[in-house]
Amino acid sequence: MSDGKDLCYLTIREAQEHLKGRQVSSVDLTRALLERVHEVEDRVKAYVTVTEARALEQARRADERLKAGENGPLLGIPVAIKDNMCTRGVRTTCSSRMLENFVPPYNATVVERLSEAGAVMVGKTNMDEFAMGSSTENSAFFTTHNPWDLARVPGGSSGGSAAVVAAGEAIFSLGSDTGGSIRQPAGFCNVVGLKPTYGRVSRFGLVAFASSLDQIGPMCRDVTDCALVMNVISGRDHRDSTSLVDPVPDYTRALRPDLRGLKLGVPKEFFVEGMEAGVKEAMETAIRQLESLGANIDREVSLRYAPYGLAVYYILAPSEAMANLARYDGVKYGYSADAPTMWEALEKTRQLGFGAEVKRRIMLGTYALSAGYYDAYYLKAQKVRTLIREELKQAFERYDALITPTSPSAPFKIGEKAADPLQMYLSDVCTIPVNIAGVPGLTVPAGFVGGLPVGMQIIGKPLAEETLLRVGFAYEQATRWRHQRPAL
């Protein structure tokens, strides 16, 4: 394994075996990743900050732990962190001018747990500003490019986290998912992405967008790696009152190569009007593959409230965002504009610190919560949210999991939807109901359309990550999609 590029495309499990067998050191592995970053980053533009010196020091300490006989699944493994998770001593920008120079004095719980496990942080990844977007074009700094076609978007908001894994610039990464922001970019970049059950992974230290929807999860090369990362980052955290107390299983025990005994439903409403023909064809092929693995498939499932998910999301998420972003007032931390009075300074700070999409969502949220419109919009959206959640609950009384496309389209061209917010919002039509209901969703590579990746989404009931990982693992073992690499 002397080829640096081959090292960069190892899975966590493969890297762990090489480290245990002393075929390579963590320092060697980290240097190979950093060389890959220097080689391709000017084209991919996935990192906001590369922490080279810190990474090499963490790798050196990991090698010492390995020599002392320690043996953890993430010990010495290079990771990239989405830039909305606090990292002590390393700036956390949310890809916004508002936080361009913000350096947190503490780590997010997930960062803390990865550090304790011995993972090596290569850097912080680019994203749509404050996680508001589906293409990573809303970053205040630059647009990230899809490694499979540099003229196309990698998805969003965790576009940087998906792109670094696809491009061989990290072994795995963490993203956050409010309406599809792990799964949609994972599907666009031919990697595996898991949005866990709401509360399964602590949100402490995650810069809030919509607190009732946000969730952190892994983005990896295969399903086994997702299980390994979930073993480390999951579990109760006393600093996050919404984190679940349920014990964390060993997710790797769920990984079996067949689906005998499982009943899977295919909701008709997720095959939306306007879906690209190639995506639909890839999904049909994937569903037949699941059937051949022993799953009992029902193609006549109907979730009649699911189509309302998009409207519900774009009332609830902006309303929560409006409240969460009120803290950026130019006084406590972050960007602060000069002006003659406090009120002028506050107004100017938000005018210059926030980008266009963030301002759009603040305005939507303010409108939905305003007197005279609260009952008509916000309250009604909460009622429909309950209907969506109950409908999914009833579906999971009949099915072990639901199978849908991750996105109705393949990756679109940079700039293609930038001037049409509604078309951009429709990119998340298949993923949003999962967040609204708080249930887990897994995306796995499911083919290509014109050389561009297509993802398949697997949805389960609360805390059914093991079932999703089992379905995803069996499917990927029977296919070769995850082994393909972009020609960078």
What number is the mean pLDDT?
96
First-to-last CA distance: 20 Å
Helical residues, percent: 25-40%
CATH superfamily of one domain: Amidase signature (AS) domain
Largest sheet: 11 strands, mixed
In which order are the strands of the major sheet placed? 1-3-2-4-6-5-10-11-9-7-8
User: What is the N-to-C succession of helices and strands?
Assistant: HHHEHEHEHEHEEHEHEHHHHEHHEEH
Oligomeric state of the chains? Answer: single chain
Task: Give the radius of gyration.
Answer: 21 Å
Unreliably modeled segments: none
What is this entry, summarized?
By secondary structure, the chain is an alpha/beta fold. 38% of the residues lie in helices and 13% in strands. The protein has a domain of 255 residues: Alpha-Beta Complex (Amidase signature (AS) enzymes).
Secondary structure: elements and pairs:
Blueprint: H1 4-8, H2 12-20, H3 26-44, E1 47-50, H4 52-67, E2 78-82, H5 109-116, E3 120-125, H6 159-166, E4 172-177, H7 183-189, E5 192-195, E6 215-220, H8 223-233, E7 263-267, H9 277-292, E8 296-301, H10 309-324, H11 342-353, H12 356-369, H13 374-395, E9 401-405, H14 421-425, H15 432-437, E10 441-449, E11 452-459, H16 465-477
Description:
This protein is α/β, with parallel strands linked by helices and 488 residues long. It is 38% helix and 13% strand. It is built from 16 helices and eleven strands. It has helices spanning 4-8, 12-20, 26-44, 52-67, 109-116, 159-166, 183-189, 223-233, 277-292, 309-324, 342-353, 356-369, 374-395, 421-425, 432-437, 465-477, and strands at 47-50, 78-82, 120-125, 172-177, 192-195, 215-220, 263-267, 296-301, 401-405, 441-449, 452-459. An eleven-stranded mixed β-sheet has the order 1-3-2-4-6-5-10-11-9-7-8, with helices on both faces. Strand 2, helix 5 (109-116) and strand 3 (120-125) form a beta-alpha-beta unit.
